[in-house]
Structures are given as C-alpha cells and as structure tokens.
Amino acid sequence: MAKQTVAEQFVDILARAGVRRLYGVVGDSLNPVVDAVRRNAAIDWVHVRHEEAAAFAAGAEAQLTGKLAACAGSCGPGNLHLINGLYDAHRSMAPVLALASHIPSGEIGTGFFQETHPDRLFQECSHYCELVSTPQQMPRVLRTGIQNAIGRGGVGVIVLPGDVAGEPAAAPTGDHALVTTRPSVRPGDAEIDALARMVDEAGKVTLFCGAGTAGAHDEVMRFAERVKAPVGHALRGKEWIQYDNPYDVGMSGLLGYGAAYEATHECDLLILLGTDFPYTAFLPDDVKIAQVDVRPERLGRRSALDLAVWGDVRETLRCLTPKVQVKSGRKFLDKMLKKHADALEGVVKAYTRKVEKHTPIHPEYVASVLDEEAADDAVFTVDTGMNNVWAARYLTPNGRRRVIGSFTHGSMANALPQAIGAQFLDPDRQVVSMSGDGGFSMLMGDFLTLVQYGLPVKVVLFNNSSLGMVELEMMVGGLPSYGTANRNPDFAALATAAGAYGVRVEKPKQVRGALRDAFRHKGPALVDIVTDPNALSMPPKISADMVSGFALSAGKMVLDGGVGRMVQMARSNLRNIPRP
Fold it and tell me: Boundaries of each Thiamine pyrophosphate enzyme N-terminal TPP-binding domain copy (predicted)?
C-alpha cells in the first residue's frame, strides 16, 4: 500500500472530524489537496465561484449544526478572498477550519509570484493560525487547529504550501480522539448564590436575551415565570426566545420594536443572558446589571456590571431558578406587556394600509407574506442592510425555523453564500435567501453554484435599486444620498438565462402567487420583487448617541414600520394579565 501524502492525511483528518464538504476554488497550490478529496469518499469538494462564498457557506453550515465545517483557498489572492467570510464565522462563534494554501516553501520570503503571509493575515479572525513547514508537523498542527475551532467556537486556519502538501506523510495518521462537542459550563456556587440574592432583593427584574439562550428556551421561561420578568431580546436571540413566550416585550436596538427598551430601563435588575449586544446607548446605566455568558471575555465589556457570571445560560438557570423566591406581584410585567401590545398596534397600519395598491411594493408587505408562505422549518439567510429590519420585524420564530445573517460582522452579500451552505447541509429543507439587490449583485456569480449543484435555494430579492441602509446613514449625517443608486438588470431574466426559475414582481397582488410558485419549483429559483426605495425604518427610542455606527434617521416620515404577526402574539400575551 502506497504511503499517504500530507494532503491525503489532511483530508483524512478532516473527514474523521466530521467534515463532509470542503468549499473552495481550485488552484495550483491546492491541487494535491483537491485531488486527495477526489479520492476520499467521505468528503466532497464544493466548487464555488468566489472564495468569500466558500467561507460564508462553511460558516452557515457550522452555525446550523454546531459542528466543524471547512473551506479552502489557493495561495495569495485565493485565500485572501476567504477573509471576509472567516471574520463573519469567527465573530459568530461558528467552528470553521480554513485551509490557506501557500506558495512553494522554498520561495517564502522572496517576494515570489502571489506571495502573501497568510500566517499573519488571518490572526485577527481566528483562534489558531499556523504554517505547516514540514510533513512532520502533520497531523498535530491540523488537529490543534480543529480543537481550537470547535472548543473555543470560531476559526482555525492552517497554512500549507503546495509542495509540502504533495510530500509523503512523515508518519501514519493513526487514531486520535478529537473533541467534537463543547461542554456545558456551570458557574460556581458563590456566583449562583450572589445572583439569587440580587434577584430576591429586586422588585422588578427584566431579562434580555441573546444567541447564548440557544437550547435554553424552557429554562428562561421557567425563570421568567418564577420572578414575573418581562423578556426582551437582541436580534440574534429572536429565533431562540421569542416563540411560545408569554413574557415577550420585543427587541431592543436600532432594529427594535415594542417595549424592550422600556423594560430594560424601568427595572431594578437587568439580567443579560447570553448576549454581547453592542449598542450601549440602548442599555441603561442607572439600574443594577448582572450578566451571564459562557465567554468570560464578554462579561462587562458593554456595561458596568454589578455581577458577572461565567457559565452557559441553561446550566446557570437550572442552578439559579430553585434558589430564588417566587415573586407574586405582576404589576411591572403586566405594564410592560401592555406597553408592548400598544406599541405594536400603533405601527401595524404601516404595512396593512392600501398595500395591495401601493407601487413600488412595500417591502414590509413582501416580508409579511414571505413569513406566511415559508415552511415552518425554513432556514432564512438574511442580507445585511434593510433586509435585517424586515427579518427582525416580520419573520415569526417557532422553535423550528432558523435565521442566519451577518448579524455581528455586518457584511454585505452574505445571504446567498450562506444559503449555499444551509442547502448542502439538508437538500430537502426549504432555504430562503432574503437578498437585497446590492448584496446579491456583489456575489451574484455564486447564483451559478446553485444551478451547477441543483440546490433548491429560493432567492427572494428585495430590489429597491439602491443601497438603502447607506442612504439612511447619509440622512443621519445631514448629507444628500450620493453613490447609492444601483442600475439593475432584470434579475429574473438573468436567473432564467442561468438555467434557474426566475420571476419578476412589480405589483403587490402578484407577490403571494410568485412566492408560492417559486417554493413549488424543485430547483433554484429567484423572485425579483421591485420594492419601494423610500421604505425606511426607525427604532422605538431615539437619541443622538444612538446614531453612531448605524443607520438612523431623525425624519418622522420613517417612524412607522410594521411588525407582522408579532402584534397577534402581543395580543395573545395580554390575555395572561389577570383581570380585576
């Protein structure tokens, strides 16, 4: 039996770690690895059209499964293209292993053709980034990169020169146990007892939840019931905590709605659960704050804390709930539920009034119909920009749907490539890319990846022929919009020319039928919907401090923004308020 090459050893270890796909674009320095993939039945090569899409696809797969995913780029420009998607994966705590292949090892440091220094370039967007200089370093370096990606939640980068990849392995791969899941982290008894005392001493408690509440829905609900706490959430916490939640008071932040802002500011104790919510202007500075997070470096970096608790949310609440006294008074909770319902009632007219006659089409209306027509277990990938607003306010979570976006890194063009990773993971699950025309056109070439592999992704294109969020940013600064207009083609015609299903929608009454037809289509589909470029959005609370770093307009014309089926949820929750 012939001895393994380093490339074969590399692919074998990835497969043993559970990787089933390697996303990338082939290139000479990658050839030994790609050929090793060709000959390994346990792993497939996914040929995308841009390496950035490869990294986004791997990141989406990792976010959906919590397991390791992988991508690759050839030397120099090839692996440089990975960097944006890797930043997104790393900031989303998605375990991704990236192979950055390199120029011939003997040429490193000479200014050789396509030379870069990937072992330096990827340091900021990875937990581990190392150069393999000799076959003897394999497989330990790769295994270390994998353990960092999985164990710490984020990216591991292995830099491998093409000539080293083609050399014989120094030793057999061997059997080696790899960590493939993360442990639960329980806080110490002292911290649990201190938090219990704070809860008992507070008359009014509010919970504010982020992505760290994944898997802890029941624990959060039991704790909220015990202490009669309103429950608000950040955008990344929405899918995990809003459904089946009789204590829901909405979302805070620049995309926010409802009474979450009031609930976090009018309480005696605010408990931040698994959230690294970055917009400090929306957080109070005159109430007691406790924070629970599995990542200790995140404790207190947004707010001055009265108590920091290092642990995952589910284990913390399992320990905490039995220790706190049951609160009998619901006055604060009921007040916030009423404020929440009133706030939603006040804006619901924005997307219901004459929408079937309004052209260009209200994007709020499109999002609300999409929410109704999409499958109960759909995966939505959401472009950064105004689509974040429509997803935040209109997509209804139910515990089975997933919503993936560049919610922490804030990159354009993420939705389409993330949909590729989501669809490869489960070809039978409905995957919907909520794309903006700006984001879609930036990485439009990878629509061809859908066609090439027959991936049945449905691209719902909110086409307002502008960079809408940037126009908002300019408005904030008192500037006229400039450089934000897109001269777009008929995207549906392009989709048809590429071999996919395409339909263009210009009238509201066509929206529902077009979405249904696209969802029934067996292969990739694009619904190009011409939407109103003047449809902008405002958060419920505004101050000058909130403007920095995001789009926000002081114009009253954009204050109204609908909230979809959430108003029905709020009305339902009002039924829980005891009547005198």
Answer: 5-116
